[in-house]
Amino acid sequence: MIAIIAVLFLVVTMTSPNTGSYFIGRELCQSFSTVRWFCQLFGTAPSSMDMLGRSPFSPKNDMKKIVSHLVQLSWTVAIYFCHLYCAYQTITETMRRHLPFFTQLLYNCELIITTISMTMIFIGCRYHSAQYHIVTDKIVEVLVGFELFGENNMLQKVQQRLNAVIVFATVLFMISVGCDFHTRPTFWKTLISVGSYILPHWITVMAMIQYTYVVSVIHQITKHSNRVLKRQVEIQHTVSEKNVFDTIDFLQQKILLINHLMYDVNKVFGWLFLNTILSVIIVSSVQFLEGYQFSYRKTVSIRDITYFIYTIFWIVLQLGHLMLFLYPNHLVKYEMKKIALNLCELDRPELFEIVEKFSRQFLLHDGQYLACGIVELDLKLLTSIFGALTTYLVLLIQYDTGDYRSQFG
């Protein structure tokens, strides 16, 4: 009896449409589970997110979704207004300190930029909530068929690396909170500082890591595609023309889907990228200026050393903000270039047509992924940012007066 049931199950499974897509979608959701939990906890992903679009319809499920949505919305509003209150208190205190104009402007701009970032994230994740299902379907469409070439642990690799990123980011933020607590005179001042500075940057990380996940999956796919293509180059003269042709045609279609997917995802996150880049420049300028002012102190206490350590960690966190979206893009572009080079090694005359078609695709796509059509998402952007920071820091030092430094001496 058990054997009959097992046979029937296999028959139904093998004859059911989109069975492979369904299981790949389930595996994709499972690999995203940790990131999803953190993002929903801090309001950067809607609680009603349905990546597969297959939730059963029933009054009980609908009521559960409504309650979950209301709870998350209330929690998100509380987080947002908590930040607004803390930012207001911080700006008020900054105005009372009679800092130089440009230094004061820099401190206030930091709070304004981070507030704009939080607003964009909380509104954007709900406005673009339908994109979760759309992007999931597109990733599944790309993944279907790769199981025939082995390497079925691509999603597990992404999950492990993203979990490590979350742990690393959590540790850095906890160290920053600890340093902040040690340098503030009262616990209330610590809460104000955490709500003003640390909280919005954590929210930004929780939003960016969703993009990191998607592009990391794409990187694994392009990396695997490279291995498959390299294998075809090695065996092109020992197997039938049809086998190699079908494989190259398969890869060409998948790379085309990947390019469309990258454009769509970058379009959703574009304005957040620009805001984050501006925020990193402003925040890093503040931290470098404070590090410069630290060198003028005549006496150094334990609290001063702790604050200097906090400054270093905060600069590292700003670099981490950029790496969350620049480094995955760099990896994808690197694999794309390798695919184009490997195509040049296919010299079998029967394959010239498909190779030419594949090559034209790379020529039409210039390999650049842009944020709002303005900034190229590549690691070389760091050079421009460091150059801007150096110039801006020199100007700030010139405007920094001895009166401001003397209060620390």
Entry keywords:
409 residues, mainly alpha, two-stranded antiparallel sheet, 13 helices, 2 strands, 80% helix, 1% strand, disordered N terminus, disordered C terminus
Structure commentary:
- A hairpin with a 3-residue loop joins β1 (370-371) and β2.
- Helix content is 80%, strand content 1%.
- With 409 residues, the chain is mostly helical.
- The protein is globular and about 80 Å long.
- The protein starts with a helix and ends with a helix.
- Residues 1-17 and 403-409 have low confidence and may be disordered.
- The protein has a two-stranded antiparallel sheet.
- The chain has 13 helices and two strands; from the N terminus they run αααααααααααββαα.
- The protein has one domain (35-45, 56-406).
- It is a multi-pass membrane protein.
- One of its GO terms (biological process) is chemosensory behavior.
- Belongs to the insect chemoreceptor superfamily. Gustatory receptor (GR) family.
- Residues 1-20 form the signal peptide.
